[in-house]
Specification:
six-stranded mixed sheet; 26 helices; about 45% helix
């Protein structure tokens, strides 16, 4: 353990030092969030003595909970447990927890002591040091806060080893910011020389860079503790960053990710004003790239973005201020003009928001993402929104060949909601792709539905063929892999929809064979298991359904001898994983590219047959899917049997992603 300042300690496995500091306090509140608490509360309890005076309180995890509404119950808890002016708050967590714990301590009884125990790299080099504590207002970040220095800061490097890669990179963004604020060239050189050691979490290297980063911040804090002048330079990148975070309601970019982009924004301004060279700007981008940190600015509605920049707390008199840097790393706080912001953002027009909507037989889905036009190829950069609603547009289309009026109304209601979400992101009409699949193309009144969608929801629908759907499915799936991962390998992608199932055989080089079959979860349910509003899953009906499936699958006989691995997309396959994992909250990260075995599908089918027939809920299964999940699972199981496969890979990337990537405009399928 090393004491780098009077109140800051750094090392590995040093939490036991807290016992030394707690002797002077009558009560201790360990304040954290649910994620960190679940990881570390037990460890902390085992380390700490005087357990009778130590209390624990956790909040929900996320920037969106950094509000007055979240901390009011904390005050209640402290009052109920008779915390006094001789008590202390310990912030155990990342930047949000450190900011909030400090704010609670600085306002409870007009101020009590607090100790920062930052668990993220971002918090260790930023939020825990300097004494700025705050909470967010609904319209602006860190709008309500105070200045109060922590009693002690305990930086334990071991915490960093449990961080997600995304969170570690977020901290590196803030840490790299400090390398631009110091004229000590050795610091940046040390980072560049130890990139692999940093990525491998080597203790001595992590301690070194965290210590040096803190020293940079501490320098500005000590000469200007209340941010009247020089301390403002620590806000390099923050004017853009705070506006970006606000635009996306603090749910898309971590603070460090946003700051990384903000630093490039400020450097673009410096380049625009001839303060730095193109080489300086390029080298800065390369440093971030070495840590896989994306620094491309996002091209958003300029007027909306400027309005958000004006709301930053550093501004006044309606002017926007940011930090200017030159080649010698001289810093100044300057006003930036609207035309300059516009010119900088226009350089990044190739990084923009796109939306795709899939109107299926059973569900309607929305996907919004940041994409980049890269050498005439669209690349998916970041997922923004995913939403699904069960609308049952294709209800009885199999029998009647037309869309019911009430089904159209349900779907239009969903489309109106999706249009509002899209408009909130100021996405241009040319970047909205909406396509309808089997239920719409099989109906006699599809033109009526398409016309109403345009008139009432301002959504232009493309009714696509099964082959087109198969193509964009394949394009979406392939985007999940690098060329090396599936080089010289064939994959068969299938999408069990409500009315049809699409099969696409190909490789990274392209598509070889495409087939759309009229077997789907809704179609099979209505054809074999639903009669006069009653479901009948008798063995004879199941046998008839399987024979029908296999008769249709014979159309794929020419694919049978190919050497490939199976990839399944869409609701039937993803539901298998969420049920297997008993997900109370759907987690895309656990589902995407998960392996699913034949036995697990069979076990799920047995579970569905038992619970669905009894009308009982199943953990991990959307209740709105219950009426078609048995039929869909029978199709899924039959596909594996037909191709004699024991497992498949489940992909979250499907036709929604393929459409975003420009699949409907590709010439390949035409």
């Amino acid at each position: 353990m090393k004491k780098i300042f009077e109140d800051i300690y750094i090392g590995s496995d040093i939490l036991a030092i807290l016992n030394k500091f707690f002797k002077d306090f009558d009560k201790v509140l360990i304040f954290s969030n649910d994620t960190v608490g679940n990881l570390y509360f037990e460890k902390v309890k085992n380390i700490l003595k005087d357990k009778d005076k130590i209390f624990y309180f956790s909040i929900k995890d996320g920037e969106e909970y950094k509000t007055i509404e979240t901390i009011l119950p904390v005050y209640d808890f402290m009052v109920d447990n008779e915390f006094s002016r001789k008590s202390v708050v310990v912030s155990l967590g990342g930047g949000v927890v450190c900011d909030m714990g400090g704010y609670i301590a600085s306002t409870y009884m007009r101020g009590i002591e607090f100790i920062q125990v930052p668990t993220s790299l971002l918090a260790q080099v930023d939020a825990s040091v300097g004494g700025k504590v705050a909470i967010n207002h609904i319209k602006c970040k860190n709008m309500m806060g105070t200045f109060k220095q922590p009693y002690k800061v305990i930086i334990d490097i071991e915490f960093l080893k449990t961080l997600e890669t995304k969170e570690f990179k977020s901290g590196m963004g803030e840490l790299l910011k400090h390398s631009f604020l110091t004229k000590n060239k050795d610091y940046l050189s040390y980072i560049e020389e130890n990139i692999e050691n940093i990525k491998k979490y080597r203790n001595d290297v992590l301690e070194k860079i965290v210590e040096e980063s803190i020293k940079v911040k501490k320098y500005f804090v000590d000469i200007d503790p209340y941010e009247k002048k020089e301390r403002a330079f620590l806000n390099l990148g923050h004017t853009y960053a705070h506006a970006l975070e606000s635009f996306f309601d603090y749910k898309v970019y971590t603070h460090g990710e946003a700051v990384s982009k903000g630093i490039i924004f400020d450097l673009e301004l410096a380049f625009l004003r001839n303060k730095i060279s193109k080489n300086f700007l390029s080298r800065a981008k390369e440093i971030f790239e070495k840590f896989d940190i994306d620094t491309d600015l996002v091209y958003l509605s300029i007027d909306k973005f400027v309005d958000l920049m004006k709301k930053d707390k550093k501004n006044s008199f309606g002017k926007i201020y940011t930090i200017l840097i030159d080649e010698e790393k001289n810093l100044s706080k300057i006003e930036i003009a609207y035309e300059e912001i516009k010119e900088i953002l226009n350089k990044y027009k190739e990084n923009f928001l796109k939306a795709s909507i899939d109107i299926g037989t059973n569900s309607c889905r929305l996907f919004i993402a940041i994409t980049k036009n890269e050498k005439e190829k669209i690349v998916l950069k970041k997922e923004i929104v995913k939403d699904l609603e069960i609308v049952k547009l294709g209800e009885d289309v199999n029998k009647n060949k037309f869309l019911k009026e009430e089904a159209i109304d349900r779907t239009l209601k969903c489309l109106k909601k999706y249009r509002e979400i899209i408009d909130d992101y100021y996405i241009e009409d040319s970047n909205i792709i909406c396509f309808a699949t089997s239920a719409t193309r099989d109906s006699s009144n599809r033109e009526y539905f398409i016309k109403r969608a345009l008139e009432e929801a301002n959504i232009k629908i493309q009714c696509i063929s099964g082959e087109q759907e198969a193509y964009i499915n394949f394009k979406g799936v392939v985007s999940s892999f690098s060329k090396e991962e599936i080089k010289n390998k064939k994959i068969l992608v299938f999408d069990i929809g409500g009315g049809s199932t699409e099969f696409t055989l190909g490789s990274f080089e392209g598509i070889e064979k495409v087939k759309s079959l009229n077997i789907g979860s809704v179609r099979i349910t209505e054809k074999f298991f639903l009669s006069n509003g009653e479901y009948d899953y008798s063995l004879s009906n199941i046998e008839k359904a399987k024979n029908w499936i296999f008769d249709n699958l014979e159309n794929l006989n020419y694919m049978k001898n190919e050497n490939f691995f199976l990839i399944g997309v869409a609701g039937t396959t993803t539901s298998q994983i969420s049920v297997r994992e008993k997900m109370k909250i759907y987690d895309s990260k656990k589902i995407h590219l998960a392996d699913l075995t034949y036995q697990e599908i069979n076990d799920n089918l047995t579970l569905f047959m038992d619970k669905v027939i009894k009308n009982e809920d199943i953990i991990g299964l959307d209740s709105k899917r219950k009426d078609v999940i048995i039929g869909g699972t029978i199709i899924l199981k039959s596909i594996l049997e037909y191709f004699e496969k024991n497992n498949l890979i489940v992909s979250e990337n499907d036709n929604l992603v393929g459409a975003i990537l420009g699949g409907l405009n590709d010439r390949n399928y035409r």
